[in-house]
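--- STAGE predict ---
source: upstream dedup step, 1 unique chain passed
mode: sequence only
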Amino acid sequence: MVTCAALLLAVLIDATLVRMLLVPATMAMLGRYAWWAPGWLRRAHYRFGLHEEAPPAVPEHTKQL
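--- STAGE serialize ---
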């Protein structure tokens, strides 16, 4: 019974303190540095067009109705 209570307490602490408070606060403090990717994965994203840059704007006179 003590093991069950300890496991329940560990899960509650993990769910509340770590995942709801510490992780979002750390991500906010790190900003763009929180989203790091290895070089090979970054190159693959750019190669296949999966990067997050906004697409180029289409001039008004080239838009089709």
